[in-house]
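Methods — Computational structure assignment.
A single polypeptide chain was analysed. Its primary sequence is given first, followed by the predicted tertiary structure written as structure tokens.
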Amino acid sequence: MKRVVIGVVAIVVAGALAWAYVPEVRTWFQRAEVARPPLALEQPGNVVPSMPSLYPVLTRVSGAVVNISVEATQAGAMNPLLQDPFFRRFFGVPDDQPMPQQKSNSVGSGVIIDATNGYILTNRHVVADADRISVTLTDRRELDAKLVGADPEMDIAVLKVDAADLTAMPVGDSGKLKTGDFVVAMGNPFGLGQTATLGIVSALGRSGLGIEGYEDFIQTDASINPGNSGGALVDLSGNLVGINTAILSRTGGNIGIGFAIPVNMAMRGAQQIIEHGEVQRGQIGVSIQDITPELAEAMQIKAWSGALVSNVMRGSPAERAGLRAGDVISRVNDHAISSGTELRNRIGMMRPGEEVRLQVQRDGKPIDVTLALAARELAADASDLGDRFAGMSVTPLPDSHPLAGQVHGVYVQAVRPGSKAARAGIRDGDVIVVVDRRPVESLDDLRRAEAAASGRPLLVHIVRGSGSLFLAMP
């Protein structure tokens, strides 16, 4: 113990002597003291630098994102036994008794794209079959909205409100997005009110999901939940780059895989809806498919990118221009084509009569073709088929439909709200493949099935998205 005390005393004495008689020691301590950065708390009034924040961006654009509330009338559930004519008679239920009706309410989001005229862009599925649409702004104003038009194949709709002092969202260029770019999803998840979530662009050009007829999705991990549909996907400059549309989830909640319609695609459709009340699409008259490595080897195709022409329709612009089965379409105007989906999306955004230039690879040689797009076959009103089909607009399944070549049926372009078809559960975009256990591909097939089932419920088998179901039409 004594040795420890003597050692400590010796160290203290040595230090004091060094401080008193060795100037270099004093200089070293003084320099160390000057070099030490002062703590922020040691300087009254000093402001610690703020952390990076999206607050300025969100403040600038939040006024353009609106909450949408929809009231609709839907067909209620009927006891499965009462769908059978025998049990309906047994329980004294008339054969022509309509399906029970029930009111429903849903929420979604929208983006103001034109403040002067009050135009709001949203998803079609947000406002489908709506009896009343109301829009709530960030300043808490609640406005009635009118549906200008919708496109089920792209899943967009345009609403109009009459109000002053609206804020429009600046529109960006989704074609400049890169995987890894930061984006913010803004909307009304679960009806909670305006919410912003941050993520990145996880992937571009997602298709083949069976969500819509025309798919070229931006995939993002920014949290998107029910109620976000129709809301804004915004870049860090505050520009609209996409319309939030769907999520991939097993539980109904967000798992980091959401999809948005690119704003370039959505705005082209919105402009047509504003001008014409609908999206008018042209066609060149071909069936197309992607090129696989096996096909490329078997057909001796050098390039694997492009859209392979599998069939040319008679009398179509493609036939008149000299296109053949086996041709590979590699460019449309100045845009390179990497797949059949990309060609379909590019042509589907052009109007009938518009002239396009195609670059085609045939036997390894490039060929330039110019043609004018033809109008797609117009939908026919099915009201002459009988009361239960009244209010439906149908057409043969278009060659451009994702299910073309996989199923045969009649495509339902539109269903009037409140009609028997709507009450039975038929929706826009459905494909009717079987009626009364008979395959259908035309209006004549529907007419014959309706006549054969006179006086009893009609069993209808439809394909919807990636699934199918049976419906009973009383």
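Note: The longest strand covers residues 101-114.
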